[in-house]
Amino acid sequence: MPTINDRLLLIKNGRLLDPASKTDARHDVLLHGPRVVRVGPDLASSDAEIFDATGLIVAPGFIDLHCHLREPGQEMSETIETGTRSAARGGFTAVCCMPNTHPVNDNASLTRSIVDRAAAVGAVRVWPIGAASVGSKGEALAEIAAMKDAGIVAVSDDGKPIATARLMRQVMDYCNSLDLPVMDHCEDPSLFAGGVMREGPRSIRLGLKGIPAESESICAGRDVELAILTRSRLHIAHMSTTGALEYVRHAKKLGTRVTCEVTPHHFTLCDEDVRYNTNYKMNPPLASRADRAALIAGLADGTVDAIATDHAPHHPASKDVEFDRAPFGIIGFETTLALTLSELVHTGKISLPRLVELFTTGPARVLGTDRKIAVGGAADITIFSPDLAWTYRASESPSKSRNTPFDGRNFRGAPVATIVGGQIVYRREFSTTAS
Amino acid sequence: MLQRLEHLLGIEDLTREQISFILDQAKPFQEFQRHPLKKLATLRGKTVALAFFENSTRTRISFATAAARLGADTMNLQAESSSLKKGESLLDTVRTLEAMRPDGIVIRHSSSGAPEFVADRLGVPIVNAGDGTHEHPTQALLDALTIRDRKGQLEGWNLTILGDVLHSRVARSNIHLLSKFGVRTTLCGPAMWVPRELETLAPNVRRVTRIEEALDGADVIIALRVQTERLHEPALAAEEYILRYQLTPQRLQIARPGALVLHPGPMIRGLEIDDAVADGPQSCVLEQVTNGLAIRMALLYHLVGGAAVEPPPAKVPDKAQ
Could you point out which of A219, A222, B61, B102 has its C-alpha 20 to 30 Å from the C-alpha of B153? Predict the structure, then answer.
């Protein structure tokens, strides 16, 4: 990203929503190169390029805690370049990529190669997550300290849980000393047992092998107990069940550093939506209607810290197979904000400021950092329209994959501009007169 | 109004009228099985592809025979010899079959939903010959034909299904079909094979753990095969199953006099069913096989022959009315 360091960009007439400073006001923002230099009402600058944000929300840059960029090893499905371009279209200025690449990101040289590749071709910032165990095999600890020096922001064996309670305890103790969060994909393998969707009336009807909700909650319970024991930073990834949510609620009441994220597909869809269409196959699977309601309540009451995409690209041929043979996962960068607006904000379940928290200060807190629009701070900014009507077309995505159940869906609300280090890396063209 | 059938993917989405129509259309084909010369020219020049991605003997032979007796040619694809073994995808395999221009494809597959997957992607009529643990619609149709023949009607009976209901596509198709005719269904078997969600499949479905209670008042009994090869979980000892769930002559006496005993086969004598029941006067096992031919001929005639499926003539009264 070549940056013209003395370039001035003035974002005018927008509604600035900055949860860190509790700002919700008609403030302008002046960027100078990669930094924010002024924030306030009615700013003027004769030299600056003007971005007219009339009718738009101006927010700190969105962070995605959970995605899969597939590089190295599965470049047929996605690359750092295509994935980050898709992230930019979704309004994300930074994305955390899971380590289940081929080979697994379990060492510093691989971490560095991801960081370097992202610096060279990435449209947005890429913050890698390192494997907790060597090869994510659940045996020996990975070289976590060396990976931290190379740039990881968390550890996880994502795609599967950290294998045993004993290993989890070691990972937590060790990551505590490094001040890194441990992210876990909560699942009990013996209950999971080859399942392909949530166990319930729908799985029985379709004759698809069910995964009981307790597969997730039992593992979340284990993790919360260990987080209390070790006083470590535990983050429950893509939480989908009432049981796991209750464990997090309990942990938060005790004042522990336990956090969690929810994906847009889990608060939008439920198991009743599943047909023999592999774009409805993800892990964790779409939950029951009751679990979905509980997740939405958790998003509203603050139990849930972040919305994460779990963007999981799979090239078309790999998904165009029998349901039980298809890989788990869907793409999500470009529909996440729109789903959050359409399903949660416009339905009155959460407020716009709460939405911004879930994409900014919430995920930042998980990573142990902050996210704000402040003088001297990074010029990472997400500008979106809460009302723009549009139709999502997966075929227009820069992602290499098309595996989404939301293709053709009509939305109200969309990302309009994504600014990373003062550079506009994505800008939506639309007419202000037409809807 | 009767919807024209494009495919037969399952029973769940069929209407009661469509089911009755298929059963009525099977009648002449039932009589035909008794002719000394069993060959029609109805589908001469037509080709039926039999794509059995999962091993099957009786269903494959039944479809092959049904096609032959209608005068159609068949193309055979079997799991052992198929290119799936070489890593070809289902979609590529069926597209290859389609390129040979069959007039219909009969599919059996171990993945639930595979026939629907294929039907969505090809322009050929698809008949589901059993998919995973989802549906086995021709089995339910032939069972219904058997019950209707023996008992005069489908409406109002008490049905008991015994065994591993969770993993049974036969049970699902039968529950869907018979509940459309007001049949009350009782499911009975080891608790881990009869989860409570099965009660949501259709109206009037209940679960009972004791076989004696399940058989009390039964008019029709379907004993399922114990499908040990399907189980992901630790298998139940066969002795335990026999002790609690085997259909024995003593237990059969609990059912209503003249209750029918059906089994989709292959039957494991001495496990789910006692010899005396399997061979007794209430057993319909061999009629089921013969009726399978009639049902499959009727279906191929309509789906492959391209004959317009029209409402049954008004003079055939719907017994439910």
Answer: B61
Clarify whether residues B28 and B103 are in a common domain: yes
Note whether B135 contacts A207, CB cutoff 8 Å.
yes
Q: How many domains does chain A have?
A: 1
Q: Is A52 a catalytic residue?
A: no
**Complex ipTM, two decimals?**
0.92
Which one is catalytic: A18, A64, A106, A310? A310
Residues B176 and B252 in one domain: yes
Are residues B189 and B76 both part of a single domain?
A: no
Instruction: For residue B83, tell me if it sits in a domain.
Output: yes
What chain B residue is nearest to A318 in terms of C-alpha separation?
Answer: B89
The answer to whether the CB of A88 falls within 8 A of the CB of A50 is no
Substitution target from B118, B133, B207 for chain A, most A beta carbons within 10 A: B133
Do B164 and B194 lie in one domain? The reply is: yes
A190 close to B (CB below 8 A): no
Taking the Cβ of residue A191 and every Cβ of chain B, the question of whether any pair is shorter than 8 Å is answered with no
Residues 198-237 of A with CB under 8 A from B: 199-201, 203-209
- Could you tell me if residue B310 is inside a domain? no
Read off the CATH number of the domain in which B189 is found: 3.40.50.1370
Asked whether residue B45 is assigned to any structural domain, the reply reads: yes
Q: What CA–CA distances, in Å, run from B16 to A341, B23, B174, B179? A: 43, 11, 13, 10
Prediction pTM value: 0.93
Other Cβ atoms closer than 10 A to B14: 22
Rounded Cα distance between A98 and A40, Å, is: 38
Q: Is residue B319 part of a domain?
A: no
Q: What is the side-by-side strand order in the sheet with A258-262?
A: A182-184, A234-236, A258-262, A306-307
Residue A79 domain-assigned? yes
Task: Tell me phi and psi for residue A158, to 5 degrees.
Answer: -50, 150
Which residues, including other chains, have CB under 8 Å from residue A103's CB and lie 6 or more apart? A72, A73, A110, A135
Report cis status (omega within 30 of 0) of the bond before A34: no
Range of the domain at B228: 137-287
- Is the CB of residue B90 less than 8 Å away from at least one CB of chain A? yes
Asked if A323 lies within 8 A of B201 by C-beta distance, the reply is: no
Q: What angle do CA A51, A56, A61 make, to 5 degrees?
A: 80
Shortest alpha-carbon distance between residue A275 and chain B (Å): 9
H or E stretch covering B6: none
Looking at residue A70, which CATH number applies to its domain? 3.20.20.140
Range of the domain at A262: 61-367
Q: Are residues B273 and B142 in the same domain?
A: yes
Spell out the per-residue pLDDT of chain B, length 321, in tens: 456 789 999 999 999 999 999 999 999 999 999 999 999 999 999 999 999 999 888 999 999 999 999 999 999 987 766 556 678 899 999 999 999 999 999 999 999 999 999 999 999 999 999 999 999 999 999 999 999 999 999 999 999 999 999 999 999 999 999 999 999 999 999 999 999 999 999 999 999 999 999 999 999 999 999 876 654 556 788 888 999 999 999 999 999 999 999 999 999 999 999 999 999 999 999 999 999 999 999 999 999 986 544 433 434 344 443
The answer to whether residues B221 and B295 belong to one domain is: no
Closest approach of B317 to chain A, Cα-based (Å): 32
Burial classification of residue B257, based on how many CB atoms lie within 10 Å of its CB (0-12 exposed, 13-18 middle, 19 or more buried)? exposed
Does residue B147 sit in the same domain as residue B99? Answer: no
When divided into structural domains, chain B yields a total of: 2
Helix (H) or strand (E) segment spanning residue B47: strand B47-52
Q: How far is CA A384 from CA A53, A388, A432, B141, B205, in A?
A: 9, 9, 13, 56, 51
Q: Based on the domain organization, do B75 and B210 belong to the same domain?
A: no
Interchain pair A276, B198: CB under 8 A: no
